[in-house]
Records
---
Amino acid sequence: MNAARGRRCTLEDVAARAGVSRATASRVVNGSPRVSEAARRAVEAAIDELGYAPNRAARSLAADRSESIALVVSEPSVRLFADPFFAPATLGVTGVLEPTRYQLVLALAHTEAGHERLERHLVRGGVDGVLVMSGRAGDPLPRRLADAGIPTVVAGRPPEGVDVGYVDADNVGGACRAVRHLVERGRRRIGTVAGPPDMVPGVDRRTGWEKALAAAGRTPEPDLVAAADFTRSGGEAATRRLLERHPDLDGLFVASDLMALGALDALRAAGRRVPDDVAVVGFDDTELARSADPPLTTVRQPLEQLGAVMARLLLDQLDRDRPPTGVVLDTDLVVRASA
Amino acid sequence: MNAARGRRCTLEDVAARAGVSRATASRVVNGSPRVSEAARRAVEAAIDELGYAPNRAARSLAADRSESIALVVSEPSVRLFADPFFAPATLGVTGVLEPTRYQLVLALAHTEAGHERLERHLVRGGVDGVLVMSGRAGDPLPRRLADAGIPTVVAGRPPEGVDVGYVDADNVGGACRAVRHLVERGRRRIGTVAGPPDMVPGVDRRTGWEKALAAAGRTPEPDLVAAADFTRSGGEAATRRLLERHPDLDGLFVASDLMALGALDALRAAGRRVPDDVAVVGFDDTELARSADPPLTTVRQPLEQLGAVMARLLLDQLDRDRPPTGVVLDTDLVVRASA
DNA sequence: AGCGTCCGTGAGAGCGCTCTCACGCCCGTC
DNA sequence: GACGGGCGTGAGAGCGCTCTCACGGACGCT
């Protein structure tokens, strides 16, 4: 197989052609400052002529670093990978990583066994750094990575007391803004379709709902909350429950666009007009929101930027050994017809 | 950094503990049949006790293979990565790869420079195999990879005469089926919003439209075709043009759901009812189709399966050195309200 | 009994690179 | 003019693994 690709040229070849030692050639390749101008030029010329590119494996082995970064999507989020969340965030990540020497290894753990193997691989130094996308609140991975001393950045808030970098969208603030919008629109009875209680963004958005109501001098009654699982049918069922408990519901904050679509289904089925009878605000601002009927007022989170910032924070840890830090990104309210 | 992670145990350690040589330990790890039962058991026990996992870099270097597979999304599709196409397909790929020793390296080329660097890396043997997702008809990458002898599987049809594996959805058949549906619904004047002429799926879907019309004894007139760029606004504009040219249009096949959404916009703006005045069929069956108004009749392609089959075909080349082959997956017509 | 064969095993040579050391060389300094 | 101190350089020792090769013992054959 190797023969078919022709003999690959090595640092040794480059060095020979440039008339220097392998060590010097290596220095040039790695941008060391302790090389004379002449040597540098000679080596660079040789590299060009030979079409040299370093052998990743050899480099990793010698330097004890893999030059790769894992993008981990842990269970049970894998099924949600098709979620409009991941693609833009991944785009942000790859955009930042492209000009660096790091390659991105996609690690979606589909099975329990796979998850274990993955964790072992990560902790044993299979990668230089890890980006974790996982909505699960109790995910032990960030802590394990932190304990193993592996630079890590998570999307969302990390578990309390775990020293990893993180980038979060301002879920609380965004939800708060959404609910304030409903209040300002004169809505009196504002419920929320929340996410599962074990997923951080879901919890945060619910918290935002509570804060906004409290700020408006109202009581966020627990039975104005119906939890669902971030699916469309889940959103529909939750909305139905809410409607039963509170026939006078006139405002609804739904923790995701997809669930909001379900809410619209339920509302339509119940004969309520949107936004006249019930005003609805979603979260995410996916393409779905624009095409919904009526088009959904929703909270936009800057997903691509989120991915990009994650990558940048990780690079800070990796290449400049900065300590892990956290960043919270602003969200925007996008007002359309539903509220 | 390494110290913080503790000393990693090596094959040597395992061998010592098991009381065998490194060579034998290696044989066990790699499942060679030429090992005695006793030795195998001893080594396996040692591996467990020590928590050994092989060092990827060392293995790659020694064996001259990287144990990694690249998932390449080449320009100009990167922007479309957020497209509902990629996530499910990627899921299919990772699902198949998870239990293997291969890791998936995500290579999205954002820039021209990045694209070049990537190609160099791939061709120089940075990966064992490549999965190419690129709708671009003229993409030179598959041919270059084939020439370099690197096992490759592309999504969609490869360029003529390039010997790589491929997995395609039956775009022609699906489109044909969609248009036949319109014919069966009694539509007389059936136009199509096609994709860009340089993207294979777009071309194939147009071909399907032509075939279906021809089969129904009609002439697929070129001015019943309006090309767009797979965006919503593009679909809207194309539909508007079609409507101008053919006010009597009563059937419309749109080459993607997202464009179909734009078509619905244009139709609504022109005061046409769907499906009464104009029946519309989309392609892809994304979540968008379900939530459209009216819900879109559309052609479903098995995206996750597509990814899975791609991965499987590549593994066939890699591990069983089978020659590259192609597979075409069936598509389904999903009938909803729009046609 | 003698021979060949096979099979499990170990020794050891790399794979291509990084990085530590030590060695000259050319300064500046006293 | 002798000396210390950079600074650019090269030699060489690994990094952890795979894989070839050669070896000894167990067996089957004549």
---
Amino acid sequence: MKRIADSTVRRLSLYLRYLEAAGESGQQTISSGDLARFGATTSAQVRKDLSFFGSFGKRGLGYSVAELTSSLRGILGLEQEWPVIIVGAGKIGTALAQYHGFRDRGFRVVAVYDRDPRKIGTKWDSLTVRDIESLESDAAETRARIAVIATPAAQAQAVADHLAHAGIRAILNFAPAQIRVPPEVLVRNVNMALELEGLSFALTNRER
Amino acid sequence: MKRIADSTVRRLSLYLRYLEAAGESGQQTISSGDLARFGATTSAQVRKDLSFFGSFGKRGLGYSVAELTSSLRGILGLEQEWPVIIVGAGKIGTALAQYHGFRDRGFRVVAVYDRDPRKIGTKWDSLTVRDIESLESDAAETRARIAVIATPAAQAQAVADHLAHAGIRAILNFAPAQIRVPPEVLVRNVNMALELEGLSFALTNRER
DNA sequence: TCTAACTTGTGAATGATTTCACAAGCACCC
DNA sequence: GGGTGCTTGTGAAATCATTCACAAGTTAGA
């Protein structure tokens, strides 16, 4: 398969959002123009994005909402439920563990880890915070391939090493640190301060 | 000024991180290759990024850590402190308000808003949750030009309208919803479910 | 059956970003 | 002072992503 751009994948996720909403409101078909309006892009872009994966529409008519929804779910790998573990039971970890946006979209938080003895054993909902040392031994039980790092920056690398060793294949890193991982592990960074700095730059250099 | 790519600005922020760390550990000069290693890019990319703004290095020697740090701070608009308001005192809003990564980098949370009467008036640290209705009347006091939306998706658009009206010029949107704003307002989205879906896609389509 | 109004899928063109490659500057040492 | 080893800054080339533009398919209505 040809390599697909990151930007394309992001847009596919957005299209899927809109399709789900359209489906719930009973809409039967949808055009690339409609999808474009929602994803803040152009109809040509929508069609190009989809064309990497096949042809899903009918000329003159548009796309079947139900069929395209299901195709996109398949493309994005969302037909299965993904077990996810979170490392770091601080403010951000807690918020993420209880965030419905994950559950609702097929990502189920199956375990939360921390290294602080005062946190280990405490419960939220049905989850008990576990000792980070049991990461490896839990692997067979949790079967998670995706992990979220929500620790302070200083611990991020150690946690990443741990995760890679426990067989995790993809990491969503919220810690403000660049982490190094073996090539079979995928990392995506979410760095909130970076986003704010982008806004600061734009506001500062707006007048041209 | 020529338009600068988003990707360039992100990398500048990363370089700045590394420079600050290098400065603290007493390093005097640094080469584009060093910066590249940290930012997961190439030395040519680093030099090109910087070249949009001037020439900061000395051939044969590299960059002065102190000078480049200060230049990047200036470019990114980080010499001033930015007052920031947060709308939404739920899990995510709370976590963000107390997140040191913001304070530490020149973004000071000066107010938190919600519309739930049970939350209004509660305190965290030195911040009291305010009624969202007082957004406009507070504007002169807070002087914030940047706002963070941390509400459920359903309220995001209404909040954005409110913010635009109160004179906010840049929005960091954590709500999983696309918001529409007037052209003088800048929006950047952070959508955590989207990031996970990107990982799901990559894991699913890895074997080519 | 014919026409009009839409809409897709896709090569080709354009635009943006990254990488290459190298002249030129600087420091150090003999 | 001249040679050696680094490193920057930057046009040019290559790669990657988006937009254009249009043939071809579909529906609906007369």
